[in-house]
Please model this.
Amino acid sequence: MSTLQMATNTGNSWTTTIIINTSLQSHETIRMLQAQRHKIRLSDSVELDSFVFPQSGTAFKLVEPEKVKDQSILVEQIQKFVALHQNSFVLFYSPFNRETQQKMLSFIQERFFGSKLYILPVRNNDEIINGMLTIAKATTKPHVDCILNRMATIRSEILDISPVLEMYKKLTKAPE
Model:
């Protein structure tokens, strides 16, 4: 089990408030989030096709390639989304690995390479929910503090048992 999984695996009782753009009001993910007892707030004030987790400061934009008519408009929407949200993720919904979907994913990756945008390819609603909730939970206090503490502990343990460090200590010891 990875450190992230250990830190976020504190039971399924974690709930949060999610602000969702009204364009997604009939999307299956809302029903799934409500079934998990998350508080859903629909709003026109958040970006089109987006989910915002205010407690963690993360935001997710759902991109469904078959609904994209013009890539330049999509780029403008993503640029605005990235400018508004510090921790921004694109959920690239691609249930099938069609060539056009792969080309669009590559286009987005190339266009936003080096930016603060993260792209999460997802194939179904379960992956959308699991991806968003894992990231949101891992970036929400006190979970983020728990992860940082565990990473610091692991780092110090690795440094304590590092053979390279042991060799370095032996080499730098002053001869008696």
Notes: The beta strands are 17-21, 39-43, 50-53, 58-63, 87-93, 117-122. Residues 1-11 have pLDDT under 50 and may be disordered. The longest helix spans residues 143-161. The chain is about 50% helix and 20% strand.
